[in-house]
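Protein in question quoted in full.
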Amino acid sequence: MRPPIEPDTPRLRLRVWQPRHLAPFAALNADPLVMRYFPATQTEAQTRDTVALWSAQFAEQGWSNWAVERRDSGEFIGFIGLTVPRRTLPCSPCVEVGWRLARQHWGQGLATEGARAALAVAFGALGLAQVVSYTALVNRPSRAVMERLGMHDTGQDFDHPALPEGHALRRHCLYLITREAWLQAGGVPAPGQTPYHGPPSPAM
């Protein structure tokens, strides 16, 4: 059991999940536009299961995908965070940074802002050497966020194991940033010590 890490940014609060977050998160996951680069929308039951999993990860290790709120209004806008992919991928074992925001909050730099805070935790409190992110090749919006974060395309495109042959979203790209590159770009590690003692990520 570790105390949860809950970073703030100039515009965002990254928090552990609370009951008040469930309804707006379920609505976000049911939005076809938000989920257009995922295999399908999610039901409320699936959303509850997802939040339960992330909440258990927070209780065990102190980090996972955070519920994101705007500081100016307290409004829930989606998730941003760090997780270990459950499926075997070219980067396995690895830690990924990811995000999903409600459409009314797109185009404001919020995903980038929150993901930078997540990287500060990854390279500071968790002591990671590198972090990855991946998405469907056609997902240009998320790839643009990865590039703004200073991540680079590894060129190791792969077929997502959960998607069948011929699926429009099956082919994925893999991005990566090392702690060294992040520091050289001006990254400031988040304080605290909650080292991640999982298997080390392979060098790429």
